[in-house]
From TrEMBL:
GO terms for molecular function: adenylylsulfatase activity. It holds the Pfam family HIT. Residues 20-136 form the HIT domain. This is HIT domain-containing protein. The active site is at H122. InterPro entries: Histidine_triad_CS, Histidine_triad_HIT, HIT-like, HIT-like_sf. A motif (Histidine triad motif) lies at residues 120-124.
Length: 136
């Protein structure tokens, strides 16, 4: 399995992720990810793409093609088990493809205090450097 990784040419709208998260609200309105999927924002594949504000040498976002009400992890229901598992397994495949053999971090932000700024569940795959603990 090879996962195509996109580099959409998007510009940051807010000065920081924290500001974006504090101003974002859950909604059924299309998110930036929906716009990528619908090709409103040009791209060729929509499963994994590089973050526009990377927090490490490798910072890739993985998203499901369909939200199905899954705006954040706190909204997950039993019917979402397969897609959540698929996201994590795909993150492992992408990490291997990116050569992150020494380790990586998976992050799922949820809600304003979790610094979630886009309400379409997504997994951050971050690697290529030594991570610290505690995060954030």
């Amino acid at each position: 399995h090879r996962v195509a990784i996109l580099s959409p040419h998007l510009s940051p709208v807010m000065a920081s992720e924290k500001e974006a998260a504090l101003s974002a609200t859950p909604s059924d309105a299309p998110t930036i990810f929906d716009k990528i999927i619908s090709k409103e924002i040009p791209s060729t594949v929509v499963l994994a793409f590089r973050d526009i504000t990377p927090q490490g040498p490798v910072h890739i976002l993985l998203i499901p093609k369909v939200r199905d009400g899954l705006t954040g992890l706190s909204k997950a229901e039993e019917r979402h088990i397969d897609i959540l598992g698929r996201l994590l397994y795909t993150a492992k495949l992408v990490a291997k493809q990116e050569g992150l053999d020494e380790g990586f971090r998976i992050v799922i932000n949820d809600g304003p205090q979790g610094c979630q700024s886009v309400y379409h569940i997504h997994v951050h795959l971050i690697g290529g450097r030594q991570m610290n603990w505690p995060p954030g």
